[in-house]
């Protein structure tokens, strides 16, 4: 059956008409063989505009759509709901980010932006005409557990948020400390392995000497930073030095510090023995302010290479300075050193005044937060990516900042990178609430644009099995590769690396990509 395409051109709040000839784009779309209707809207994300798009699609009986707008993650959820109401399969909707790929890069070259926009439109229409409708399958979740890994600030906030939504939580905490949190708490436990897929995970938990399996529907990673892994020349010289979080706990209890307090960014300024993920400067300022208010006669020094007090934290910096906290910046080439003859004295060269200062202290505190070493084991077990700094990589920063690339797995707090207590709490609440909402669906969706193996071409070389980060491909009973559809995330890695060209990604086949590229480049090849 011949494709009938609806082309929707979004003016992005009147921004595009200033540089692009919208009428020319409409004429090009209308002249294409497969286009049944062309609609221009002011905002494709607006509810009233979406009603018009649905009405037009129903009137012209279109079965697919091409949308020229902005980033698909910004408009996709509401737009897809509208097209479903119009009876259009979501996998037959092609969204073209003409705003960020044609308009914004060529603001000073409107002619070039116009040519690029026209080429992208033609290519999208051609690609849309070749797409096939795809369907997703559903499966019932076997359990409604939400597992929270870590019982720090963000972990407890996540458990409480999930509990408020009526979801059962299980907290896995590697320490044996006494905790107050909803649900089941497993102290002295850690994650050592996992299998299954989103909505139906089976986690391998080590509790002391015992190994147990735990089923869950969603996971919140709240491991925090690697505070206890502090090492370096300053930590070696001062054995009773404290990480900031432990010193903060003392301040909260009202325990007076031992003499003057020096807060240093890292115990290893050279970075040779300790890979520091970042510094807890917000917490350092908060701790210094609270300590100064409780013990105004205590001298407090904050020694740093860079003070990253962003946004409203600048007010905390000013408040700390007004209270009498002394800030000293140093250069890496002249790092602070503890006097080997007197371990209660630290020497630091003030970068601003080029003056060597000797500071006698009673308490030495470190604000550095290395990545939690448990992150690697957790990421390997759950098959999720990490950042270069050793944190857990999150999903879209704009729309889903506490998600991971795998559905059903969420991350919060310093498991990603160092956060203040306030930020970690808010992220924990968000992650817990999202995990609860995910679990309360009761069903998981899978399929759609996933990998598919042509077994006649497969040589069972295991390349796809070794490459896939989600362990979707496996060798089946016919000694040929097969795909676990529930695990496939549609990344296409197996497609590109298969030496036999036996794997294709549905709706991203070689023929579709080749034809789209041919139209986009304006020639044959």
Walk me through this protein's architecture.
The chain is an alpha/beta fold. The chain folds into 4 domains: 5-134, Rossmann fold (3-Layer(aba) Sandwich), CATH 3.40.50; 146-226 and 371-444, FAD/NAD(P)-binding domain; 227-370, FAD/NAD(P)-binding domain, CATH 3.50.50; 448-506, Alpha-Beta Plaits. 32% of the residues lie in helices and 24% in strands. It contains 15 helices and 28 strands. It has a 5-stranded parallel beta sheet with strand order 8-7-6-12-23, with helices on one face. The longest helix is centred in the N-terminal third of the chain and has 21 residues, at 110-130. It starts with a strand and ends with a helix.
């Amino acid at each position: 059956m011949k494709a009938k395409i609806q082309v929707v051109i979004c003016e992005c709040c009147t921004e595009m008409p200033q540089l692009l000839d919208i009428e020319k784009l409409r004429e090009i779309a209308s002249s294409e063989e497969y286009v049944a209707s062309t609609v221009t809207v002011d905002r494709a994300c607006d509810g009233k505009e979406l009603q018009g798009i649905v009405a037009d699609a129903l009137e012209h009986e279109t079965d697919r759509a091409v949308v020229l707008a902005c980033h698909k993650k910004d408009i996709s959820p509401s737009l897809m709901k509208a097209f479903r109401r119009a009876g259009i399969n979501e996998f037959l909707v092609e969204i073209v980010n003409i705003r960020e790929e044609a308009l914004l890069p060529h603001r000073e070259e409107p002619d070039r932006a116009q040519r690029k926009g026209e080429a992208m439109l033609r290519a999208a229409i051609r690609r849309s005409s070749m797409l096939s409708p795809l369907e997703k399958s559903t499966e019932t979740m076997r359990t409604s557990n939400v597992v929270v890994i870590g019982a720090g600030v963000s972990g407890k906030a996540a458990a409480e948020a999930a509990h408020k939504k009526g979801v059962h939580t299980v907290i896995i905490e590697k320490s044996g400390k006494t905790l107050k949190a909803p649900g089941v708490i497993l102290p002295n436990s850690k994650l050592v392995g996992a299998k299954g897929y989103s909505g139906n995970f089976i986690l391998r938990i080590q509790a002391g000497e015992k190994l147990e399996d735990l089923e869950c529907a969603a996971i919140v990673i709240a491991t925090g930073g690697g505070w206890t892994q502090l090492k370096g020349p300053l930590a070696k010289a001062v054995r009773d030095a404290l990480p900031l979080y432990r010193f903060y706990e003392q301040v909260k209890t009202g325990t007076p510090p031992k003499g003057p307090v020096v807060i240093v960014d890292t115990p290893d300024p050279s970075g040779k023995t300790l890979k520091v993920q970042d510094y807890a400067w917000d917490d350092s300022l908060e701790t210094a302010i609270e300590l100064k208010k409780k013990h105004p006669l205590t001298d407090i020094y904050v020694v740093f290479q860079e003070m990253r007090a962003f946004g409203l934290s600048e007010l905390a910096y000013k408040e700390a300075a007004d209270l009498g906290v002394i800030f000293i910046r140093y250069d890496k080439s002249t790092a602070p050193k503890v006097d080997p003859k007197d371990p209660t004295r630290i020497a630091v060269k003030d970068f601003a005044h080029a003056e060597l200062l000797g500071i006698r202290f009673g308490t030495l505190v470190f604000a550095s937060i290395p990545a939690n070493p448990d992150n690697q084991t957790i990421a390997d077990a759950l098959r999720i990516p990490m950042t270069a700094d050793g944190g857990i990589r999150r999903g879209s920063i704009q729309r889903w900042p506490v998600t991971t690339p795998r559905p059903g797995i969420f991350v919060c707090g310093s498991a990603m990178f160092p956060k203040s207590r306030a930020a970690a709490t808010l992220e924990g609440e968000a992650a817990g609430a999202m995990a609860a909402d995910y679990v309360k669906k009761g069903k998981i969706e899978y399929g759609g644009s996933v990998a598919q193996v042509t077994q006649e071409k497969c040589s069972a070389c295991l390349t796809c099995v070794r490459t896939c980060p989600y362990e979707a491909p496996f060798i089946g009973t016919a000694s040929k590769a097969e795909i676990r559809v529930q695990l496939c995330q549609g990344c296409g890695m197996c497609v590109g690396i298969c030496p036999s060209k036996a794997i294709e990604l549905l709706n991203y086949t070689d023929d579709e990509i080749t034809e789209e590229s041919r139209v986009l480049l304006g020639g044959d090849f």
